[in-house]
Specification:
four-stranded parallel sheet; alpha/beta; 319 residues; single chain; 11 helices
């Protein structure tokens, strides 16, 4: 994972100049339609998984913008002055505290009517080496410093829990459309439950339970389906693994029947290919769904997760 960059001094200055309030959880007693363009709930989402939830649950009653553009690595996001103003004016902000330090800072300083922290809507866990506290990297948030893994959206069950919480927050912010938000959330939850069943069935019988990745984003997914994620730890995705780490992974690949080193769409595949070449392994994409681009194997969350399942089944020797 690229080393995180903190929110720029310019953006902080711009935010401070707006005269900014303190962070609150989901709180808004006013109707969402107050001052809205077209009467829609104006929602700012931090990155794609939050955008997807807002769009699926909000439907035609929300206007959703995202802080992280397609193809942009979300951990490295810097908030612009314009985005700071957008946050200030938003009816609701949906974000995942601990993933994007710049967003955490900007949301804390904004006066958005409703602030929805997805990290409070489910239970974050520690997954050993989450690639957020490797040597040479700084922990830029409380979650990273404590070792909690923020990649919770890659577990369909926990993602569904977050969806229910987002629905509740939308219902409170916009009571007039509460029934629609509840209905849309139920539809989404049904899709996520079906996806969970597909993963359970598809990964139940495999030749190996171990997979290699250059980004330790799949701890929740691995835990949910009885797999073991082994990340190329202690290195930036743009650099090569150390000789000691390379030897360790080569030995583990032989011992555990590992066939594939996974890389992702938003960062270089150099590290994965280096390991694969030296260990005589294949490479393939396992998408952490931090953004949808032309390189993504699917156009939305469900489709990309289904592509991930197919890739895992192939790599793990599903029967």
């Amino acid at each position: 994972m690229n080393v995180r960059r903190l929110i720029s001094g310019t953006a902080i200055a711009a935010a401070t100049a707006l005269g900014l309030g303190a962070l609150s959880a989901c709180s808004s007693d006013s109707s969402a339609a107050d001052g809205n363009s077209g009467g829609k709930l104006d929602v700012v989402a931090s990155f794609y998984p939050m955008q997807y939830l807002a769009e699926q649950i909000g439907g035609g009653h929300v206007s959703v913008t995202t802080l992280t553009e397609p193809g942009q690595e979300p951990h490295d996001l810097e908030i612009s002055a314009k985005q700071t103003v957008d946050l200030q004016k938003a009816d609701a902000v949906l974000y995942l505290k601990g993933l994007q330090p710049a967003v955490d800072e900007a949301v804390a300083q904004s006066e958005a009517k409703t602030k929805i922290d997805a990290a409070t809507l489910t239970t974050l866990e520690k997954h050993g080496d989450t690639a957020h506290s490797h040597e040479g990297e700084e922990a830029h948030s409380d979650e990273e410093a404590s070792g909690l893994d923020p990649h919770v959206w890659l577990d369909p069950v926990k993602y569904a829990e977050i969806a229910d919480g987002v629905s509740a927050a939308f219902q409170k912010a916009d009571p007039a459309n509460a029934a629609e938000y509840k209905k849309n959330a139920a539809t989404l939850t049904a899709k996520l439950n079906s996806l969970n069943t597909s993963f359970e069935d598809g990964l139940k019988n495999t030749a190996t339970k171990v997979f290699f990745t250059n980004h330790a984003a799949f701890g929740y997914l691995a835990e949910r389906y009885g797999l073991t994620q082994e990340a190329i730890a202690g290195v930036d995705p743009e650099s090569e693994p150390s000789a000691a780490r390379m030897k360790e992974l080569q030995q583990e690949a032989k011992a555990d029947g590992v066939t594939t080193v996974f890389y992702e769409t938003l960062v270089s595949d150099k590290t994965a290919k280096t390991l694969a070449d030296d260990a005589n392994l294949r490479t393939d994409v396992l998408d952490p769904l931090e953004g949808i681009t032309e390189k993504s194997r699917g156009t939305d969350y469900i489709a990309v997760m289904q592509a991930n399942l197919k890739a895992l089944r192939t790599a793990l020797g599903a029967k």
